[in-house]
Fold:
Amino acid sequence: NAGVMQNPRHLVRRRGQEARLRCSPMKGHSHVYWYRQLPEEGLKFMVYLQKENIIDESGMPKERFSAEFPKEGPSILRIQQVVRGDSAAYFCASSPSPDEQYFGPGTRLTVT
Amino acid sequence: SQELEQSPQSLIVQEGKNLTINCTSSKTLYGLYWYKQKYGEGLIFLMMLQKGGEEKSHEKITAKLDEKKQQSSLHITASQPSHAGIYLCGADLDKLIWGAGTKLIIKP
Structure:
């Protein structure tokens, strides 16, 4: 059983471009969580999704950020018009239920 | 301020020595997780503690949750270079929240 997969592992975007980060949960997991880890800080919760539904997006910035977890395919975290402050490592985790979360390797976003 | 305080922020330890990392909350924790992040890699689950006074061990790493369920400590015995990395504690409050991490460096 493959673990949680995230791609790309590294993403470089210029200011104003869009960033799309993908997360493929473990087989059988229908819960996906996105976290952001800023330099020198811990992980910050962003959003919790189940298939086709956003359950909790209280950690998402109000503008430019969106997330989806379609019926088929990976979960996508989309950041529009990226700014330097968006540079961070973005982790997704999946779970078969709202308990222990299994983390992916992360995507390191660098905005130049 | 962080809801979960982790200390120390960084730690340099001679190989073979013991060390302890602490994670403290002002609120009662319903679940406490310890993860390790290797530099440039993802998060590796170490242990989860739920009951007051609970203690779990995995190889040379032992984690405890105090009786009040407000503080946890992670203890590494006879540290090795493979223990180097960033240790994160996470806790179940309304949602999963995280400490800022402890960067552990092992000196040969």
About this structure: Chain B touches chain A at residues 2, 4, 6, 33, 35, 41-43, 45, 48, 88, 90, 95-101 (CB under 8 Å). Chain B has a mean pLDDT of 88.
